[in-house]
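Most newcomers find our protein records easier to grasp once they have seen one. A learned vocabulary of local backbone shapes supplies the integers on the structure line. Here is such a record, shown just as it appears in the course material:
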Amino acid sequence: MEAPQLVVGEEVPFSIRIEKQHIFLKIGDGDELSWSLGKRRMGGAWGVGAQKNSAGIWRDVTLTKK
């Protein structure tokens, strides 16, 4: 997936939302993207993968449950 909204050295807001078996991602002012999770369970530990030689700083992370 390409994300032209992500620029080195700039802060970019994003959101991740999970509803039943779908995950939704919105980066900056871009369109919301979604993926089906199929039969994968969403319980347990979570994290964010990063490609080699990449890094980021997370600020104001909020976890909510509806």
